[in-house]
Design goal:
Blueprint: H1 8-14, H2 58-67, E1 75-77, H3 80-88, E2 96-100, H4 105-118, E3 121-125, H5 130-137, E4 143-147, H6 159-168, E5 172-176, E6 194-198, E7 212-216, H7 219-232, H8 238-248, H9 251-270, E8 275-279, H10 289-295, E9 302-307, H11 310-320, E10 325-326, E11 336-339, E12 355-358, H12 364-378
Parallel strand pairs: 2-3, 2-4, 4-5, 5-6, 10-11
Antiparallel strand pairs: 1-7, 6-7, 8-9, 9-12, 11-12
Helix pairs in contact: 3-4, 5-6, 11-12
The structure holds pyridoxal-5'-phosphate (PLP).
Pyridoxal-5'-phosphate binds near residues 81, 104, 151 and 201.
């Protein structure tokens, strides 16, 4: 049996198991060590010190690398932000970084820090506006940073067009694939150079770890990212890596259920009398629908909702829910929601009354009843 030939739903279950020999455990162990027995001139690849490598990372890294169609295993990082910091290190001092205006707000904060400290020319773009992105790349750029769908606006980028334009301008392309997961979208297959994940979200899937990962299109780029991780020490703890692998086992099942729930809820909310607007690329009328249908094999489990009644109603909805959990973060088995502009740092182009909803795996009728009663409570 070759794992590469399996459907992803089977692959996530079968990947990264210890060898099938009599008496072997079916799960890999958690190896707790800071160092390895070693003498003489170190041979590359030989276990040496656990900041450089720890075999507990490997099953998850190999599985994610294969899912993302990367050149070699993915690399685990201590958080999604640590992986983003590594990816953005490809921009030299004084270089140019073109980034989605509605990228994850902390990724934007990191980009602005690069601008302030190293004179990086940071250009914010509406990532769904292809001509605007091409104009921002200009004659030469170093990195195009894409999220698609974006957090929290759910805009969809034309990935093949943007990747071609960025490469023509000499830029690498990094895609934050947290929202889509590799089951719904594989940017490296579309030509991107780097993919990052907040493993904290759907990959681990249970809101119990903070972890990140990065996958690269070439062995050289992977080696560069590995060197960055070793230099910066932004490594995963063995327990967290093991929990992420455990979460990955059920990824296909969770994604299937939460995506189906999201399609149904988006459809119903779109005609709810107390809802002004729904953003979800899975809705046929959504501005991002056609692109998403062309480059994704699912529409994700995030949606944006603007209730009637403005900020007050939006806040009231987040207080009135009983099954949905009012919390930041996303991609867990439990459904969560929040008004994004409650953060002072959120982009001012995000509507003040936008409620971002992350749909979990609960029964859809329970989720519907709860959000419906919350909308009514918010709007007596
Ligand atoms: C949460 C998130 C991140 C940051 O990941 P952490 O694991 O919290 O560091 C990056 N990108 C997106 C899209 C996210 O949702």
């Amino acid at each position: 049996m070759h794992a590469e030939n399996l459907d992803p739903a089977s692959f996530v279950v079968a990947a990264g198991r210890p060898e099938r020999t009599q008496g072997n455990p079916v799960n890999p162990p958690v190896v707790l060590t800071s160092t390895y027995v070693s003498t003489g001139v170190p041979v590359p690849g030989e276990p040496l010190y656990a900041r450089i490598d720890n075999e507990t990372w490997h099953p998850f890294e190999e599985a994610l690398g294969a899912l993302e169609k990367a050149d070699g295993p993915a690399l685990l990082f201590s958080s999604g932000m640590a992986a983003i910091a590594a990816a953005m290190s490809v921009v030299p001092a004084g270089g140019r970084l073109v980034i989605a205006r509605h990228a994850y707000q902390v990724a934007l904060g990191f980009a602005h820090d690069l601008g302030a400290r190293y004179g990086v020319d940071v250009r914010l773009v509406d990532i769904d506006d292809t001509p605007a992105v091409i104009a921002a790349l200009g004659e030469h750029a170093d990195l195009l940073w894409v999220e698609s769908p974006t957090n929290p606006m759910l805009e969809v980028a034309d990935l093949p067009a943007l990747i071609a334009a960025a490469h023509a301008a000499g830029a690498l392309v990094g895609v934050d694939n947290t929202f889509a997961t590799p089951l719904a979208q594989r940017p490296l297959e579309l030509g991107a150079d780097l993919v990052v994940h907040s493993v904290t979200k759907s990959l681990a899937g249970h809101s119990d770890v903070v972890l990140g990962a990065l996958a690269a299109s070439t062995a050289e780029l992977r080696a560069q990212m590995h060197a960055y991780r070793t230099l910066h020490g932004s490594i995963a703890g063995p327990f967290e890596a093991w929990l992420a692998l455990r979460g990955l086992r059920t990824l296909a099942l969770r994604v299937e259920r939460s995506q189906a729930n999201t399609v149904e809820l988006a459809r119903r909310l779109a005609t709810h009398p107390l809802v002004a607007e729904v953003r979800f690329p899975g809705l046929p009328g959504d501005p991002g629908h056609e692109r998403a249908a062309a480059q994704m094999s699912g529409f994700g489990s995030l949606l944006g909702m603007r209730p009637r009644g403005g900020v007050e109603a939006a806040d009231a909805v987040t207080r009135a829910v009983r099954l949905w959990t009012p919390a930041t973060s996303l991609g867990g088995v439990e459904s969560t929601l929040e008004r994004r502009r409650r953060f002072q740092t959120e982009s001012l182009t995000v509507p003040e009354d936008l409620v971002r909803m992350s749909v979990g795996i609960e029964a859809v009728e329970d989720l519907w009843e709860d959000i419906d009663q919350a909308l009514r409570t918010a709007h007596p």
